[in-house]
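Lab meeting notes turned into a lecture example. A postdoc, R.K., suggested we walk through two folding results consecutively so the class can see how the record format repeats. The first protein's sequence and structure tokens come next.
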Amino acid sequence: MSDTIQKKKLTFELLSDPGLALARDMGLAFQQPGREPLPVPAVYIVGADGGIRFQHVDPNFRVRLDNKVILTAAKTLR
């Protein structure tokens, strides 16, 4: 993870849930019978106060939110 932060020169905290523990707790894990669970695509932008300022969750694990939408939301919420 720190490689990505350094490589991309990110100025914000990037979180990950490699074991899907949080995804399962939040109901964001897609389970097909006989297969490993997959995370449901979800994007959260959290404010400095810890409040969620933007969220997008799509139950179709094949659908991803366009990067432009995420960037626009982040810029709008500055």
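The second example is placed directly after the first for contrast:
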Amino acid sequence: MVALWWLLADEEELPRLRIAWLALGVVGIILIGAGIIALVDRWRKRPFQSRMSASEQLAQFREQFEKGQIKPEEFERIRALLNERIREEMEVSKVPALPPTGEKPAGPDTPAG
């Protein structure tokens, strides 16, 4: 369509058409660039969401429940899910205890006995 219009245009109109298409292209590039800049700025300013532990999440949901923001059924379902995660976190974070007398555990650097 544009090519047909370009072919049918008079010789006097060609310079104006070229300028119009060039201006339209420049405006389009500027708009695309402004859109990209706006998206990057929105991404950069988004709030930092650190990963909350399951117990912190449960405390937050408990506050919402006490304020009446979530229903009791929803809170019970969330609590059941988070209790499983809390148990998993507790199993992962268990560290073997030192011997009761304060002795160093036998390892590759220390002789046993």
